[in-house]
Design a protein that fits this description.
Largest sheet: 6 strands, parallel
CATH architecture: 3-Layer(aba) Sandwich
Order of helices and strands: EHEHEHEHHEHE
Distance between the termini: 29 Å
Strand content: 15-25%
CATH topology: Rossmann fold
CATH class: Alpha Beta
Helix content: 25-40%
Oligomer: single chain
Number of domains: 1
CATH superfamily: P-loop containing nucleotide triphosphate hydrolases
Radius of gyration: 16 Å
Shape: globular
Structural class: alpha/beta
Length: 177
């Protein structure tokens, strides 16, 4: 099945659930035999549920991670390396989005890379505007800039009301990662 009119989603806010919502959409798309690419801009660990699942259906669901270092107060050479990796991640995202090879493209934590000024907002907006009509695009992360929100078709803000971390519950496999 092909998407006739691909739209743009932004999942933002301080609460848990942005990546989870994107993965829910991926699951739905996979159920309709669509091809899904998830590019994770910040996450660089393989022991997460979505990686394990993607490995089981790698013909239609691919995840590529770019572990951008968000440490503050790092030496200049690390800042340069971090910006170089962010540029590589963005170039890869642009290629994937414009190729039209995937029906659904998820740019997980791209908003965080924007917030840390690792990726240029105008570049992201250009990619969003130039995406093929057949590509559904999801962008996640805290602090979505108003310009990106204005460009999107769907915008969902996750609002933190209560979280188990507040009373000492650690992240759990299969639920939180």
């Amino acid at each position: 099945m092909k998407i006739e009119r691909g739209l743009v989603h932004v999942y933002t806010g301080d609460a848990k659930g942005k990546t989870t919502a994107a993965l829910g959409l991926a699951l739905r798309a996979l159920g309709w035999e669509m091809r899904v690419m998830m590019i994770q801009f910040i996450k660089g660990y393989k022991e997460i549920g979505e990686i394990k699942f993607a490995e089981s259906c790698s013909d239609r669901f691919v995840i590529r991670q770019f572990a951008l270092d968000l440490t503050r107060d790092i030496p200049e050479e690390k800042v340069i390396a971090r910006r170089k990796e962010a540029d590589q991640a963005m170039r890869f995202a642009e290629e994937v989005v414009t190729s039209g090879e995937y029906d659904l493209v998820i740019l997980d934590e791209l908003v965080v890379a924007l917030h840390y000024e690792l990726v240029d907002l105008d570049r992201v907006l250009r990619m969003v505007r130039d995406k093929p009509e057949s590509v559904e695009l999801v962008i996640t992360g805290r602090n979505a800039p108003p310009e990106l929100v204005a460009e999107a078709d769907y915008v969902t803000e996750m609002l933190l009301i209560k979280h188990p971390f507040e009373y000492g519950v650690q992240a759990r496999a299969g639920v939180d990662y």
